[in-house]
Amino acid sequence: MKVREIEVAVISDIHLATHACNPRMVLKYLKSIQPKILVLNGDIIDSWRFSRNYFPKPQLKVIRQFIKMMEKGVQIYYITGNHDEFLRKFNQTEIGKLKIVNQLILDLDGLKTWIFHGDIFDNTIHKTKWLAKLGAGAYGLLTLFNKIVNRILKWSGNSEVIIYKSISNYLTKKNLNLSKFETAIGNAAISQGYQTVICGHTHIPKEKDITIQGVTIKYLNCGDWVEHFTATEYFDGRWHLHYHDGLDDETQTDDIDLPEKQQLYQLLVKELVFANTL
């Protein structure tokens, strides 16, 4: 596998600890790049579903890959999102090469980039959080059902289907006015003097210029690793929206364990402590 050297990679919405997560796709992407900075732009660990004790080995491998990258000198910024909001009380906490923040400002080639998850501009999250959590739970059930259906179809020699994608896109557009969302973010970025703004949250990758009162700013949404498998990358003096084309390896079966809370906690602590001692 050819490894690409880039300055910055930004990924969001992995949703570890859920059935919607695609850990092998995430791993293939992470192993295909060699960034100086990796930004985890929110909803990396899904605490809304974490209480169900679902954290299979392929997903733990994603955590281990983050640690391996830090061992090699990669600076990782973990920007908190609404699904991992429990980390917001640890804002500015540093553990070795890992730093937890609520937002990140990067000065690249004299231009300032503002990176944050984006949920702060989603009124649905703040006004009807229970509805958002209900939707997240329903989405998780849909993805699990979709996986079961596709395994049956593959076994019978039929083509796979995507059940949850069209439904999730419909719900996102119905509950979140994307145009207003993007304009509000662009307005906030321009008022603070940034030239580029990067968010996640919507799961819809986007790259566009937003012009407000004669001032133009570049807006990027890094998408997600549930459906679109996209990232924003900085190299050659500019930001790029990258679509990962690596196919998931279905020849390997998911080695699914359902560890107890205490066991899972000990595993994660062991990984973090090990990384901090290097």
Computed over alpha carbons, the radius of gyration is 19 Å
Strand content: 15-25%
What spatial order of strands do you see in the largest sheet? 4-5-3-2-1-11-12
Question: Count of DSSP E strands?
Answer: 12
Distance from first to last alpha carbon: 27 Å
Globally, the shape reads globular
Category by helix and strand content:
alpha/beta
Average residue pLDDT: 80
Helix content: 25-40%
Number of helices: 7
The parts where pLDDT drops under 50 for at least 5 residues are 249-259, 274-278
Major beta sheet, specifics? 7 strands, mixed
Could you state the order of secondary-structure elements as H and E? EHEHEEEEEHHHHEEEEEH
What are the key terms here?
single chain, 278 residues, alpha/beta, 7-stranded mixed sheet, 5-stranded mixed sheet, 12 strands, 35% helix, disordered C terminus
Task: Characterize this entry briefly.
The chain has 278 residues and is an alpha/beta fold.
Task: Describe what this molecule looks like in 3D.
- The structure is a single chain.
- 35% of the residues lie in helices and 24% in strands.
- It has 278 residues and is of the alpha/beta class.
- A seven-stranded mixed β-sheet has the order 4-5-3-2-1-11-12.
- Helix 1 (23-31) packs parallel to helix 2 and helix 2 (57-71) packs parallel to helix 7 (261-276).
- The radius of gyration is 19 Å and the shape is globular.
- Residues 249-259 and 274-278 have low confidence and may be disordered.
